[in-house]
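pinging the channel bc i need a second pair of eyes. not urgent but kinda urgent?? the chain im working w is below, pasted from the shared doc
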Amino acid sequence: MVLPAVEITTAHGHVLVYFAPRDAGNIRNLLAKIDIKGPLGEPDSHTAMSMADVIREAERLGGISIAAHIDRVKTGFEMLATGYPAWKGDIINSSGLYGLECDDAANLIWYTENDDSTATGAERKKLLAARGGVSALIGRASLAHLQGSDAHTLAQFTTGRADKLLTRFKLNELSFDAFRTALSDCEARVRAVATIPKSLPRILGMQITSGFLNGEIYHFSDNLNCFIGGRGTGKSTALQSLAYGLDLTNELETHDNCPGTVVVYCEDENGMQYRYERLRGKRPTVVAKRDKEITDVPADAFQVEYYPQGELSAVAKDPLKNPSLLQEFLDRHLLLSDLVGKEEQLVTALDQNSAQLITLEVSAAQLTKKADLLAEINKKLAIAEEGKLKEIAAVQDQLSNEKNLAVSLGEIRDQYDAGIDFSDWIKDFDDYEEMTKPLTGAPASNAALLKIKEAMNNVNKSLSSTAEKINKTLKTGAREMTVALGELQRAQKTLEAQINVKITELQKKGLAGTIADHQARLKQKSAVTQEINKIKGQATLLARLRKSRSDYLKELAHVRTELTQRRKDQLKSINENLAATIEDYTVFVHYEPSGITDEFCAFIREKMRGSYFQEDMADKLCSQITPPRLATLLLGNDAKTISAEGGVAEEWANEICQKLRRFQTVHALQSMWKPPCPVITARTKGARPRDIPINQLSDGQKHTILLTIAMLAESNIL
């Protein structure tokens, strides 16, 4: 298609004006109207009129204007003057302006919502926003961004065209009106070639052996593919077989129509090809081919979104009551595996930490009571030393103390004998490298990695050598202590025999009952002392486990904050796409801070069972407070703050403290998460916007929203 057009030099740069073939004569009328100075067609011919005035006159004559090479020095209006004087705003706000031509592909973002985050970019965004407020431009505030051949003759256009960047237009027909329509709907119908990816991820084909579709071979189009057929012809089976071959589902495996073998060929956006082969009952084997080299790769190397029949319906049915399903749906458009994997590791580590810590915490909580009990026993023993048993009481007490010391020293001897183990600190570089292959192989990277490997090997050698030396010393000490403890035990037995002789004499004098009471107290003191020493001996481990738990919880909070931020970051593109696709209403996705409380509420209801704590009160509590915050308040037995922050009566807050103030419960709350709740809001357009309950939308409208998210969300996934 050839359209009559002219390039005009105005007071503010060059502008291209196009006319319908039937109005070709209006080019001469336009040139006469704007008073061209100099011979027509010569490089120095121009008009003294502003570009905005020329555009206005061209529009009056039925023409379409595009500002030419706006980023070119001296002839592009953006480069003609620094800053943003009023005449630039006049150009952008012209209803006859349909597009902007750029020489440099990097400048195709100028005058878009994705413009530079610089001061000049901010000014261009302001001018674009002002264009949106012009009544004559309602429905086409966006400007088409183009690149052209810059040919001034037909010969220039046809010669050497392969090296010139052009623009693609989607036209319903080859006509001027279709050209105008494309520029008016530029986001869908106009693409500068430089902005089009060289390739897109696609499924090339599939081959099926045995099963319902035995012998079928599918060659897929690079564009949209549809399976069309009557009931029972294999449409669903074909799609399920494709998903099965790509390791997206195992459901088909339980059915008789499952293929014996599925082979799928794919190609990613970088041109790398993949071959999936899956035998029934087995995991798929996947290889990738690039530059004639074939390597094994994991099954998720080529990422695909798969929606089984009815899945979107389940999400759309009631997204308010099932926010978890909606969040899972939104997460399909994000790469979260690194954070989700880290979160799972931290929660597992916290569970393991809790299993060790709870026993120590319970013991530590008894330390004060045991210390008080020991003090009471010592008082009674002191009285005995001043009474009729003073001849032996003091010696017995001292001997008991010495035996308790021997028990503690024996435990230390056993720890020495067991030695130390640095295995947690010894790391194998090769194991970590193997798990993360393939790597770049770049010389600089290899050199750096070699240095890291040498450093790790040096640490491993040092730790092994150090552990060997320390353990040798510990073993020697343990043997020496064993000998000395044997000597101590024999000395204590000799002293104990002497005491027994004196006890026998006292019993003959009628003091048997008093002696029995005294010996019972000595045994009790021995037991309590050993318990206290054990608790104190665990103080270092307790402190280490507490610190580890605190560190795990901080890291978990950081991971979840980052996970939340990634989820929120995708909303900008999702909401932009919703606004561009759905015109009847304003539809957007956002997050409610009250969060997804299903797990939290179920936990609270279970722990408060039998207390008549109503479900609505549990829902209110869980919507107003987070699990970690509740755990902190429970540790402090702070019922008053629980009442204030959780929105429950203080008597119920006291009941919550009484029932939930257990280490196991508190630890479970510390690692529990109440993620922000995704909400879809639909709002009428007009002077007085009104929110429409999402469930009042039709199934078709809800499916349109979800499909818009699925098809247009920012993602590298097919």
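so The longest strand covers residues 202-209. and The radius of gyration is 40 Å. — does that match what u expected or am i reading it wrong
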